[in-house]
Amino acid sequence: MEHTKLPELVYRIDEAATRLKIGRSTFYRLVSRGDISLIKIGGGSFVSETELQRFIDKQEKQAVRQGSPLKALLRSVEEQRT
Asked: What are phi and psi of 45, to 5 degrees?
């Protein structure tokens, strides 16, 4: 029987930071500013895939409005997700 790998629904802090290509301290700064929300499961803190996508979408919209070089970075992150 062949097993299909399920998509990840939540990420540990270090995994989420890696997905965004930022350090843990930068990630925690985004959390403290309210830009990214955490989920508590048991004793751990996690970030949902939906929350990461929401954050990326918000950053991309801001970059487009501002004509920022961040747009290219966000596009690169999105391409790696697929």
From this structure: -110, 135
